[in-house]
Design brief:
heterodimer; A: 501 residues; mainly alpha; two-stranded antiparallel sheet; 21 helices; B: 157 residues; disordered N terminus; membrane (chain A); transmembrane helix (chain A); Putative tricarboxylic transport membrane protein (chain A); DUF112_TM (chain A)
Chain lengths: 501, 157
């Protein structure tokens, strides 16, 4: 315990340097603005702005990206409250009661409670992170290639199952992502795979191309419309604050939904949308006046805001401690870390404590900064919502291409980027989720390497995959997730038949 | 399914798509070189495994649709502004890739952003389109240079 607090104090000495303070402020402000813009969620924001962080060093880059991440979580609800247009999935729940509040002349209270709830949720998430991350990382040090393979199978199946609720479609997406991960030279034998004669593909396909194609390009294609008009948005407000009565009613929902949001964030594939929806639903069920929900009930705004910010911090746990990103945003961050020469995982805590603890401390500082940005400066920031799509979307497209160029220094990568933009639309049309694809494209290589390494170490004995309790538990969890949809449909059949009769 | 909904059902289409992609990926693996050391098929096992997974899930989707037609997931296809934006965006993307190095950053980016802006916003807003294109190219060029990632502004002869 003392050791953790000492490490956290050390983190604050890193985070509070003028340079890193500037980065966290910059990240929080840019993230808030990006989060507000419809269609541009945190994943797109981090992906498109990634090249800007290359020159900051690992700690600065990670602090900035995290700032963008939770800044976007703060900002996402602004558009929900004022325009009924969520910036991303996690901000959808904020529309339910935030927009009615604004329509009822309570925009100030709505903006204030969303920022306050996000702030408290973020702080609770950061506190849990401090204590949980170290223990998860220590535990993960016991993992060998066999355990890692089992963990990746579990993460992939969980993501496939949770991302849009259809396991088969999720597994198709996973398989396609794994296919992409096989492109390039095979690390163990030197055989080139699926390079189709292109030398540029020998090193493999950078998964950031997949991410930027799926997020930035697809979102621009969906939003770009010749009829895009400037949106009318309220920009003049009274004092952005809440009454004592509103505070009293919101405090408990904020406090109880934050830990739940954090736990959902830790699950691979779950994410902010699920966290905020679950928080909304929980509070509606607990409320004495559930009929008020959807008509401007302040608790219906506070609870999801708290949960989705805590969730964004929870999502960092699997990425930093296990090297398995559980969401699109953490996938982009992991890509950035790999590019900076750092391998996320348990050894990161031992080898680079400055980065890990600097980042952890920045979560506290970042949340305070985001609250400052989102309370007094709210009326200034919401003017961003008036930026016309005709300027915004071509610029985002340009940044997406340049982001790819900054990674590879080659215009050749524009071609796969175009292909993944189109593939993203095809998958969207077929209702195939993209999160499992992205996760598989990232971990595919590691998964194959661990699989072959484990077999090599055991002399070809397949028993190596089930000879540890960790692997067995992970496989059991995977089987449960696979069987869950069957159980649900069986139960649904069982419960509907009597009522039909 | 009798009214043609089979072809318009996203579960069926998703399954068909998965089977085609999985089979193509699996077949393409046969053109790979063998490993020079150890098991010659070692680099092919993993692609076979994931191709197989894709095909099996695709078949399962098709079978589940045939056994229990899901009218709730019917999809129709029409050419929308999203498809138009994707086609135009992709075409200008290819042009950008072809011109990026020969024309240099400023000219190729201005053409790219300008082309996209004209296509997305129409000719009526020509002033805003031109200002966005030139402004974006110049601002991004200076930001990249400031960040220590210099771009080639103009072609070198």
């Amino acid at each position: 315990m003392i050791e953790i607090l000492q490490n956290l104090a050390y983190g604050f000495t890193i985070c509070l340097t003028p340079e890193n303070l500037l980065y966290v402020t910059l990240g929080g402000a840019v993230g808030t603005v990006i989060g507000m813009l419809p269609g541009l969620g945190p994943a797109t924001g981090v992906a498109v702005l990634l090249p800007m962080t290359y020159f900051m060093g690992p700690t600065g880059a990670l602090i900035t990206m995290c700032g963008i991440y939770y800044g976007a979580m703060f900002g996402g609800s602004r558009a929900s409250i004022l325009l009924n247009t969520p910036g991303d999935g996690a901000a959808v729940a904020a529309c339910f009661d935030g927009y009615p509040m604004a329509r009822n002349g309570k925009a100030e209270s709505a903006l204030a409670i969303s920022a306050i709830a996000s702030f408290i949720g973020g702080l609770i998430g950061a506190v849990i992170f401090v204590f949980a991350a170290v223990y998860v990382a220590r535990f993960a040090l016991r993992f060998g290639p066999g355990e890692y393979f089992a963990l990746m199978i579990f993460a992939l199946v969980a993501t496939a199952s949770l991302s849009r609720g259809n396991l088969l479609r999720g597994l198709v997406s996973t398989a396609m992502g794994l296919m992409v991960s096989t492109i390039g030279l095979d690390g163990l034998t030197g055989v080139d795979r699926y390079t189709f004669g292109f030398l540029e593909l020998m090193g493999g396909l950078d998964f950031l191309i997949v991410i930027i194609g799926f997020y930035a390009l697809v979102e621009v294609y969906k939003c770009a419309n010749p009829k895009t008009v400037t949106r009318q948005v309220q920009t003049k407000f009274g004092p952005i604050w809440i009454t004592k009565e509103e505070w009293r009613r919101c405090l408990m929902p904020i406090l109880r939904q934050a830990p739940i949001g954090f736990l959902i964030g830790v699950l691979p594939g779950a994410g902010g949308t699920m966290a905020s929806m679950m928080a909304y639903s929980n509070e509606k069920q607990l409320s004495k006046t559930p009929e008020a929900f959807g008509k401007g009930e302040i608790v219906g705004l506070a609870a999801p805001e708290s949960a989705n910010n805590a969730c964004s911090i929870g999502a960092l746990i699997p990425m930093l401690t296990l090297g398995i990103p559980g969401s699109g945003v953490t996938a982009v961050m992991m890509g950035a870390l790999l590019m900076l020469g750092l391998q996320p995982g348990p050894t990161l805590f031992q080898d680079h404590p400055d980065i890990v603890w600097g980042l952890t401390a920045s979560m506290f500082v970042g949340n305070i900064i985001c609250a400052i940005i989102n309370l007094p400066l709210a009326s200034l920031l919401v003017r961003v919502l008036s930026v016309p799509g005709r300027i915004l979307y071509p610029s985002v497209l340009g940044l997406a291409y340049l982001g790819i160029y900054a990674i590879s220094d080659s215009a050749f990568d524009f071609y796969p980027l175009i292909l993944f933009g189109l593939l993203g639309l095809v998958l969207d049309f077929l209702d195939i989720p993209t999160s499992p694809f992205i996760l598989a494209a990232i971990v595919g290589n590691m998964m194959e390497t661990n699989f072959r390494r484990a077999l090599k170490m055991s002399g070809g004995d397949m028993g190596v995959f089930v000879n540890s309790s960790i692997s067995i538990v992970l496989y059991l969890l995977t089987i449960i997730i696979l069987l869950l949809p069957l159980y649900r449909s069986w139960r649904a059949r069982h419960t509907t038949v009597p009522s039909a009769v | 399914m009798t009214d043609g909904s089979l072809l318009r059902n996203s579960r069926f289409l998703a399954g068909l798509f998965a089977v085609v992609v999985g089979a193509a990926w699996g077949l393409a693996s046969f053109s790979m070189r063998d490993a020079a050391l150890g098991d010659p098929n070692a680099p092919k096992y993993f692609p076979w495994l994931v191709s197989g997974l894709c095909v099996v899930c695709g078949v399962a989707l098709i079978v589940s649709e045939i056994l229990k037609p899901g009218v709730a997931h019917l999809v129709t296809w029409e050419f929308t502004s999203t498809h138009r934006a994707a086609l135009i965006g992709s075409a200008f993307g290819v042009l950008y890739a072809l011109t990026f190095e020969p024309l240099g950053f400023i000219a190729s980016t201005t053409i790219f952003i300008g082309g996209i802006s004209f296509a997305y916003n129409g000719v009526k807003r020509w002033k805003a389109n031109i200002i966005t294109a030139i402004g974006f190219a110049i601002i991004v060029f200076f930001i990249f240079t400031w960040l220590g990632k210099p771009l080639v502004a103009f072609p070198e002869f």
